[in-house]
Fold each of these.
Amino acid sequence: MTTYPWTKHYPSEVSPELEKVPYANLPELIKAAVGTYSKTKAFTQVMPNGMNGSLTYAQIDTLSDNFAAYLREVVKLKQGDRVAVQMPNCLAYPIVAFGVFKAGLVLVNTNPLYTAPEMIHQFSDSGAVTLVVSDMFADRLKAVLPKTKIKTVVTVKISEFFPPIIAGVIRIVQRYWSRTLPKIEVDHTWFQDALKAGKNAKNDSAAASYLKGITSESVAALQYTGGTTGVSKGAMLSHGNLVTNTLQMISHCGTGMRKGMETVLTALPMYHIFAFTINLIAFFHIGARNIIVPSPRPPSNLQRAFDNYKITWLTGVNTLFNALLNERWFQDAPPKHLRASAAGGMALQASVSERWRELTGTPLVEGYGLTETSPVLTFNPLTGLSKDGSIGIPVPSTEVKCVNEKGKEVAVGEPGEIIARGPQIMLGYWQRPDETASSIKDGWFYTGDIAQMDADGYFKIVDRKKDMILVSGFNVFPNEVEEQIAAVSGVLEVGVIGVPDEKSGEKVQAYVVASAPAPTQEQIIAHCRENLAAYKIPQGVTFVDELPKSPIGKILRRVLRDQVVTGSTKKGA
Amino acid sequence: MNSIMILAEEVANEATVVNEFEQTLLRIFILIIMFGLGAGLTPKDFGLALKRPWGLIIGWLTQFGVMPLTAFILVTFVLFQFDPPPGVAFIALGALIMGAVPAGTTSNLFTYFSKGNLALSVTMTVNSTLWAFVMTPLMLVIYSRLVGLDESLDIPVSELVTVIFGLIVPVALGMLVRRLSANAGSVLELIGGVFGILFIPFLIAVWVPRNWELLLTTQWPTYVVAIGLGAMGMTVAYYIAKAIKLHPMNARTISLETGIQNGPLAIAVIVSVYADSPGLDQILLIPALYSLFIVILSTLVTFWFRRANVAAEQKIPNLL
């Protein structure tokens, strides 16, 4: 076994190498949890006003069996067929996702906020033949379906599995008050009808055959990515990728994730890889109760979830933690039962993690990963040395290093592109061998992020390679500038980008969302002057109402730059 | 004066400007609304209102400082100045009583719709009602002397107790239901909200036709006092709260809480204390007009607060 600089920093209960994985595929992993926790509540969906519905582990198991039978026996899908799923967090989501896996099919998670052209691209690129969609977004289907191979549409209500009266009230409110139920103009089957049909068609011998030949090498999900860098492509995540990454994360958290004792708040959408692997699969596997919230926007939507449940775990992105810290109800009564929080998806600002620890008295550790890596590559240990501003150390059975342009590992402390090797690296991009070949070389996945490793083996992301700003030949990393600006009082959010400049090639520009009393441009620049080299100081600060963001709340610098450079007002995905 | 006579007759018969049935209906409305509002609250919310008592203190000051003073100013500089109607002293007395009574229960409803601090609102209503034992008679003595009326009155304890129980009991029950079942609680809250929305047109619908004559014959200085009391109270309290940098949510709450007086309480007190007074109808004039216009005024202010709320506070980072 190779020893790495970080090996000694694993907490004592964490093994640097994962033991042999006892599950060949995701359904086996799911069954293991169901066997242990069957009567426990697995998922509770909480609406902004506190209305809620729950399903136990046993119910999730039975219902996802029914849904698998529906897909294979009623819709007659064949092993490996793609099933697109497009819905916000709701109780139906785990049933659909697990049902797809149990049926030996491939899950294609789709952002519900996608526009028609984006849906067409993803559905036709993946070759999806069945779509499970929230009825709130089904109005786009008439334009979309003819341009795809989708033959079957299953529609899901947000109130699925709520007590009948409550579900009825939610329907009335949706229909007559918020008017979020568009007319569905395509042939479709309601989810409950699909489950009934599946239940009737179910038989055990057939069910066993669905997974025949499904090994750890088989594709479980096409997880689309690259929306921020150009054309969206599907990362082929295998059963093995997702199973091992789940176990890596659990192992890495050690005693921080207690079996059968956690209540995790899932505010991030489960169609996103971060919440998908960690909240949906890993926390399910350890028998946690999952409190799912359909939309964390505005953040006050989370208040009832915090009020009514003893949340012990929270996963999120910088934007979410920051937003909560700015909410008065959260400041006044920080969650009492919280034990740990994990941040990923984007850089966690030091000011945010410090305020979080101060307010809640619990650790907020940052990790790192990409869709292509299932996603977790590194995390700060929950029970060992955690370094601020660092993405931590590789999870067990994972190698990470920083390399130069030639692919040679750089010295400790030197910045280089971060590359990784491990069981969680995707099989490749769906039907894009060229893109796969340029990102996976000799089993190493090239992330496109610049990082540096310290002597302890802790990594620190410097920035996204393509976000780097070149000012008169000097490299400026937006993260560093944003970090400084975020520390100025009154700054809620900040995005730093490079815009073309005649003199210096590019110049640094900051876009700030401020709260009253807002700081002035002079105050912000003065703060930067104290903390940054001259060439890194923004030439201008523009105050804006809102910054473009990805589905999980990551600030999209590329979209911001497009808006600024071309003057277009196109919104981000 | 015909209309005043009608009003006086009605008062004599029904002890209010609306009839018994409507009054019962309104009480039930308020009960359902308060029950629903309670279902949206947790003990934690009240803990916070007490833990940071600034809102409560400022609210007390505006309630018993600004409102009686505003009534006094309006009486002195408007009512007594412009062509005083017959029985102006009685009308003035009604205005001063209106200024001195504690906050009304409807303030909680409007606070809820204004996205204010509901727990603070309920706490303030209870607080000012408790203080009313002392403060309402005291304020009335002081200001009636100042305008040369030299009146004093005792607030019937039973009236105040009724107000407090009518507030605390449904709120506590609502909280209990919510604690037992978040689902039942949120349904109650929704029902309370729907009733809250119906409450306003209902109130106007029962009030206006019945008192149409009164509206037509009342002279403008009286209107200025009846409407100005609530409007000025809300405005002054809002800017005081803003000036000392209370959270906008609390500033909205204090504004509504201060401006919205307990009209039914004022009417009940007047009817029981001045039952034998020859000027009963005139004393009741301002409280009756105030009770109508405060609902309209609060509705407008609520719309304005909701807009301001969106503009000023929803800039909290957008997620998703």
Amino acid sequence: MASVTTIPEQENYLTNGYGIKSWLLTTDHKRIAMLYLASITFFFFIGGIFALLVRLELLTPEGDFLQADTYNKAFTMHGMIMVFFFLIPVVPAVLGNFLVPIMIGAKDLAFPRINLLSWYLYMIGGVLITHCMLTGGVDTGWTFYTPYSTAFTNTKIIEAGLAAFVAGFSSIFTGLNFIVTIHRMRAPGMTWGRLPLFIWSNYATSLVMILGTPVIAITIILVAAERLFHLGIFDPRLGGDPLLFQHLFWFYSHPAVYIMILPSMGVISELITAFSRKRIFGYRFVAFSSIGIAIIGFLVWAHHMFVSGMSLYAALIFSFLTYLVGIPSAIKVFNWTATMYKGSISYTTPMLYAMGFIGLFLIGGLTGLFLACLGVDVHVTDTYFVVAHFHYVMVGSVLMAYLGGMHFWWPKISGRMYPEGWGRLAALLVFVGFNLTFFPQFVLGYLGMPRRYWQYKAEFQVLNIFSTAGATILGVGYVLPLIYFMWSMRYGKPATDNPWSAAGLEWMTSSPPPTFNFDETPVVDFEAYDYEHIKEAEVPVAH
Amino acid sequence: MHTNAATTEHNPALRHHFADMTQQKNSASLGMWLFLVTEIMFFGGMFCAYLIYRLAYFNDFGAASTSLSLKLGTINTIVLLLSSLTVVLAVNAAQRGKQKLLFFYLIATIVLGCTFLGIKAVEYHDKFVEHHVPGPDFHFVAEHPEGHSEQAPVNQQHAQMFFSLYFVMTGMHAIHMIIGVGLFSGLAYQAWKGRYDRNYNTPVENAGLYWHFVDVVWIYLFPLLYLISRHH
Amino acid sequence: MAGHEHNEHSIGFYVVILFALLALTGLTVGAALVNLHAWNPVVALAIASIKAMLVVLFFMHVKGASEKMTKVVIFSGIFFLLLLLGLTMADYGTRLWT
């Protein structure tokens, strides 16, 4: 098992050029995806370290591990890094960059140099946030509400804001690239109705990136201007309104969570169909629900502001709209489960993650609806209930879908199989660890434990201990894939073109693919998820 | 379909991941329009702030607006509209393969853009001298046109809010103008080297779209900032 | 794939559009000097919108463009901007209601 196996020598994107320049100046979307994989994974673990600090402090009711200000910095940096440097870019920049051109039969994205620029912008943002962290960090919470962030805190708001601003442009350019690519570069025969749902999801995500991200960009500039020039746009002492900041901030940051979940849902559609060996149930419904989530997602932002002092009448409108956005998500969950019904299920690692996603997204999504109810929200807002809700959708859903996708496409990306036994073990640890970490937080929140507090009442300690214990298990579950994926690059079994006998253009080219993806431009004359016509180990070949 | 770019005749500007120039041109154009949408939303955040405060502090905004130079604002509007003409004529020249004319119109656009920025600088200087720049030195005194000396005193905070938004909005617009001038300088250099012709002039068109967009932003900024309350 | 038409408007046509824009500028300044009460901002924005449309349709070659996507993209941008402004106003407009 430990012998080094080499892939038969054929040109692929990994072997086409060696040396650091060939990577740092690449315009190959697959290499750029790998650059993102490395840097995003790095920031994930940094964000994880901050989570560890928070959970260690919360083992005991007293504030005895960190000072109060340091604790504020810990949860702030955890949030900022996880949101801007992990959750928003991860699925589009790693899996999307790699797969979108291949899945539509193109040679590359529409603008390969802008794609590379996106990565450099991400890295510049990353350097800025790292420097910010190392020189004191920010303590406002990742939401940096005014006037604390503009007039009172003396932490490094402008630097952190600049980091998010630059990372935001990375996101905008990725979205722009995807939209143009999907519109203009589909292979002959690849009609909109034949696109894999992963493409529909990334398309919907890109719409949100384009329309929402600029608003947070201008908001950051206004906060910086206010700090530097003492302007007062958001400062009540100078005639400003702090709620205006919140409106502008959440106009982006709510759709941002759909940037996180939509590509993950696209991954799930791919995994469920592949491991039920069945066409997706209700292709059109799933495709249009992605677009629906993207659009309706822009109508609900003020549900983050119900207790802020906003107008009650506006709150009623936003509450109603928030219920609406649950509908397309629910449609997807029904369609995935209907796809599995009477399917030929295999419990591979990706499928375990996908099935976990469905259950955890259900809980996360439903608790979102609890929060949409004004009366309930008044009671549980700013408590651990909200913290549990968003971790169920962000960690229990987005992250699990990402891991499922990484396992599913790993053979295509690296040309190697990962060790299935370890994969399943890690998936189990992630699932158990996750629930142990976050389910108690629903209870804690409902019982009244506030979020972002460094100390808490003694009666909450037992549940906090469960939560920290779960976080430890979860951490092990995350470190394992890091180790065995790297191991597999040298010692893993070489992968065939289509180890899963799955449908999709990406499985009709070699593992790893050649630099221009296909030997010849494919002509598509089959529907998506054409599993009736794909026998196991016999796959239609496009070349 | 078998594509092999090495053997077919193709435009030297064709990038290899595109099948043909039409696909490349349409992609670049769509990309630029999408970028302009991001700019709409970017400026939109500031327009949102402006809307809120204009409605809340209506009279004070009116008084503050009157202290802006209507003459300079109008001249700048005319300059920018003229520059949009020179841009569209530059694109037209490129499409007709008239390279010298293209170069001329690009330079004309740059000159007009710099004129705009120069006038803006004068306006900013005036605001500084009059203590209308937000900060510790801010002090606003409303001009009292004849017959209206009994006007209510202007709320300093509200007036300062107007000027905060004025500087942020026109400042951001000016930054975009500077970028535009930079873009067109690059274009002018390439045009001088003969890079653009009938078969390839997409960068000129797309930079033109950017310039027109910046003009459209000003078309809205001008009445919103300068023309609130000019009547007596 | 539909080719991008060369919008062969003559130079004279563009100059006419410019004159229209200049005339509208004069009109908006003139209207601002007249007290139209609540209609002042409405008139100002209406004139600005006409000017913007002239620039977009004719200078940016949207009128007669073969690509439908261009118009979809523009409408989306305007729609979401109006959404931002409108729904935010839903809060500010109703805050003082009892």
